[in-house]
Amino acid sequence: MQRTQVAQYSRQETGFSLVEMMVALVILTVAVLGLLDLTITSIKTNVQNDIRSAAVRLTSQTAEVLLARPFSTTTTCGITLDTTITGYNSLYTYGTLNTCLVDTAAATDYQKYPYPQQRITGDAGATTVSGQIYNIVWTATSLSDTPNGLMQISILVSYKYRGQVYTNNVVIYKHE
To answer: What is the Cα–Cα distance from 109 to 53, expressed in whole angstroms?
Structure first.
């Protein structure tokens, strides 16, 4: 019978022990979890910025429509869909029932105004399936005694994101 010789390993030989590998895996796991939290925060911030950009765009589009309207028909009005957001008024619908949006006999005049429900890319927290809801309200104030003088129009676009209401406010001046 022949004996097989078992190799003897000395402590000077290099390599990783099981304990060292486990410590390395724990450190790697903590680092990956930290990066995951950073990624989630980045996505939330990106969505919030997209929602804010849509509010700024709606404010600009509303200002363009109001500046193009005849001076005599520009009045305080709005387009509101969400009852829980600042400025809601049940008379301010998006359609022909909102008489302050219509300045001619054409029934489609209200379509000149931006639709207050916008689809936001990547917004998993949107209040509805079809998009983020904004309330658009403007206040027209005459600044002169003459009928065709100067008018100040304050436009307020409000929206709710993660339970908090945000507003975008701009003031424009119109004269004839």
So the answer is: 25
